[in-house]
Amino acid sequence: MSRYSKRIAMKRYAILSLVSLLLVACATSPTGRRQLMLVSEETAISASKEAYAQTLKPLSEEGKVDNDPVLKKRVTVITERLVAQAVKMRPATARWEWSIKVIDDPEVVNAWCMAGGKMAIYTGLIEQLQATDDEIAQVMGHEISHALANHQAEKMSVAMASSVGVIAVGAASDRPGVAMSGAALAAALAIKLPNSRTAETEADRIGIELAAKAGYDPRAAVTLWQKMAKVGGGRMPQFLSTHPAPQNRQQTLTALVPQMMPYYQSKEPRPTFKLQ
């Protein structure tokens, strides 16, 4: 077989492998949506644990993690109530190593939650939005919902599927340096990639319910996005680069508020889940 024929055969094999993976690697989100899942949730959680430590290490060394005890307590109290509701929704997540870190960076308007409940919120989001507890709850409820719906594993899967295509191109062009990224790198990349419009709608729907059941005003979901649209002075907040606003988001959330008010107004106890 000639060198050219070998390259073509390798390319075809890579493409056929990718198609086969796409046909069998499917899962279903909490809303019933079919998801591409080349990466298992367990793999995403393990990779996220490593990526979380690597992401926080330089920030900790600079003294930028959890250096305001009052703010840390405020965020933790809110998040523990939200996580308690997340565990009610998906009992298996009680085994996750849930944690929240407050990163001191007044310029960054962002928050995220990795697979397995590894979370962070930046002081810039709280300060620039002048966020109330109810609005912080909407942010973190939204982020927790991405983890509950396995969106990070989905984004990792899309990234890895794209990498298979890159490998095929590399094989065809004799570029041995092209290779698939490691799982931890894919996990770190996933929180920086934009969510799909469908994933955002799912997280909005689940997040506003988590927050309402935790005792936080669902109307804050609307004011949060109103503030988010105004902050930045013409410069898009980082949160909006990874959480693109679906069309009519505010209208959709406004329509959900009446459904969520009974949860918010309930007199039932608001349990908490101890974070690590």
Rg from alpha-carbon coordinates: 20 Å
Shape designation: globular
Distance between the ends: 58 Å
SSE string, helices as H and strands as E: HEEHHEEEHHHHHHHH
The biggest beta sheet is recorded as: 3 strands, mixed
Strand order of the largest sheet: 3-5-4
3D architecture notes:
The structure is a single chain. This protein is mainly alpha-helical. The chain has one domain (40-163, 177-265). Helices cover 61% and strands 7% of the residues. The protein has a 3-stranded mixed beta sheet with strand order 3-5-4, with helices on both faces. A two-stranded antiparallel sheet has the order 1-2. A hairpin with a 3-residue loop joins strand 4 (111-114) and strand 5 (118-122). It is globular. Mean pLDDT is 82; it is low at 13-26 and 164-181.
Quick summary:
This protein is mainly alpha-helical. It is built from 11 helices and 5 strands. It is globular.
List the helices and strands and how they pair.
Layout: H1 3-24, E1 26-28, E2 34-36, H2 41-61, H3 69-89, E3 99-103, E4 111-114, E5 118-122, H4 123-129, H5 133-148, H6 151-172, H7 183-190, H8 197-213, H9 220-230, H10 238-242, H11 249-265
Helix pairs in contact: 1-6, 2-7, 3-5, 5-8, 5-9, 6-7, 8-11, 9-11
